[in-house]
Specification:
This protein is mainly beta and about 450 residues long. Helix content is about 5%, strand content about 50%. The protein contains two helices and 38 strands. This is PQQ-binding-like beta-propeller repeat protein.
Length: about 450
């Protein structure tokens, strides 16, 4: 029997349904047109970003879950210090109260205060925070007992608010905008305050103490705008010196502070010339006297107009690393010679949306500014590597050889940074994630309105 015959001899029901699908129904030999039916319009463009790729790894269940204040109710300046994990404990906020949690069990150990600012730091068995009126206080980290609360508020007017608490061995520094407060760390007594008036409140969170000198940076605006490095006497807060165009210290050694000059290179008509340079100045830490200048030079490839071609520079293990357009150059900082070529260079990720962050586990780490993804280059052989997930990234943190990737689909992946292979997955149920913390063998995941305690597998510890 032919295919046509088979079609003709189909059961009546099938033929009727086929006619309905075609929009025409035959009744006793007559063709009856069905009522018109509305259909959705075809899109002018339809794009799907989901690849369907799902990573299959063992799922770890949280050992404990605890409630915590939502980041939506907090201040952006406090993002990195709303929760800390140290010495087997987690310090967080619940109902604007500071709480301490046992990181292994999730048991609440103590609760302190009310209407507190969501900012906490830990140092040598003490936690430091701010009252609602921004008065610093200190608590015994084990018991929650108050050691002191300052009578001085750090709340002042600032055009660009930057807030931070920086504890050292004998001083608690509080930063608010361009003003620095120095408190006796044992008593909370205010020793001094210092402000950079030219910054008009625009200070950074950078503060470093060395050999009786306190260094800070500011954004100074006016006819010329750039970063500025200031030095203060640790005992009195007196300003010792300030240098316009200088950034935070690359290194402090033998009474000298080495700092990148971020302003002078900008005077070059960089679009018309391929010549590029990074200048590092050395100043006497106490007096600010210029003691030396180092200039690292290179040329941009291609034809004009040229791009700026410099993104970032940092020190690691006695070596200076400079991002020079699409490559990173490594220099021996201790054996500087004018005009010397770099010890070696590394090709970075393709494109111009990646910025160099640091060196971790002997790998240059870049971040794609479009996707947030991390890419790496091995220092040993220049091989490019990546750490992929199965959903858009929300937060990435690295501890040792463990990379913890919180994703926008409510999961967190634990990845072996050295092999790039995923090891485990945790369901967080959240889109937003704060920094993933670690103390001992416990991982603390910040999800929306809650904390999750997860034991880290031995392979990542």
């Amino acid at each position: 029997m032919s295919r046509a015959e088979k079609s003709i001899r189909r059961p009546l029901f099938q033929r009727i349904m086929a006619s309905i699908a075609a929009g025409v129904l035959t009744i006793q030999g007559a063709a009856a047109v069905l009522p018109s039916k509305a259909f959705a319009e075809s899109p002018d463009l339809s794009v799907n970003w989901y690849s369907g790729y799902v990573i299959t790894v063992p799922e770890l269940k949280p050992v404990w879950t605890a409630q915590a204040d939502s980041h939506r109710d907090m201040i952006d300046a406090f993002d990195s210090h709303r929760v800390v994990a140290e010495d087997g404990k987690v310090f967080a906020f619940d109902g604007a109260k500071l709480i301490a949690i046992d990181a292994s069990t999730g048991k609440r150990l103590w609760t302190y205060g009310k209407n507190l600012m969501p900012y906490v730091v830990y140092h040598n068995g003490t936690v430091y925070g701010l009252t609602g009126e921004r008065q610093p206080f200190a608590l015994n980290a084990k018991t929650g007992q108050k050691r002191w609360e300052s009578a001085t508020s750090t709340l002042i007017d600032a055009r660009l608010r930057t807030e931070a608490l920086v504890p050292t061995n004998d001083t608690l520094y509080a930063i608010y905008g361009s003003t620095t407060f120095a408190f006796d760390i044992a008593t909370g007594k205010l020793r001094w305050t210092a402000d950079e008036p030219l910054a008009e409140g625009n200070g950074t969170a950078y503060l470093e103490e060395a050999d009786g000198v306190v260094l800070r940076t500011y954004y100074v605006q006016g006819a010329l705008t750039s970063i500025q490095l200031n030095a203060y006497d640790k005992k009195t807060g007196k300003k010792l010196w300030g240098e316009f165009g200088q950034g935070e210290a690359l290194r402090i050694q033998d009474g000298l502070v080495y700092s990148i000059n971020y302003y002078s290179p900008m005077l070059v008509e960089y679009q018309s010339t391929p010549d590029r340079s990074l200048i590092v100045n050395a100043y006497n830490l106490r007096t600010g006297a210029l003691k030396g200048t180092r200039e690292y030079t290179w040329k941009m490839a291609g034809e004009p107009p040229y791009e700026w071609g410099q993104r970032f520079a940092f020190m690691s293990g006695g070596k200076l690393y400079i991002q020079q357009a699409d490559r990173v150059a490594e220099y021996d900082f201790d054996a500087y010679k004018a005009g010397a070529e770099p010890l070696r260079t590394f090709n970075g990720p393709s494109g111009h949306n990646s910025v160099l962050l640091n060196i971790v586990q002997d790998r240059l780490i870049y971040q794609d500014l479009t996707t947030g993804e991390l890419e790496g280059v091995k220092l040993a052989n220049g091989q490019r590597i990546g750490w992929m997930g199965d959903a858009p990234v929300a937060q990435i943190d690295v501890y040792g050889n463990g990379m913890y990737r919180a994703q926008r689909n409510g999961t967190l992946l634990g990845i072996d940074m050295l092999t790039t292979k995923p090891v485990f997955k945790v369901k967080t149920g959240a889109d937003w994630h704060g920094a993933t913390l670690k103390t001992g063998d416990m991982l603390v995941i910040q999800a929306e309105g809650k904390l999750l305690g997860v034991k880290v597998p031995a392979s990542l510890q």
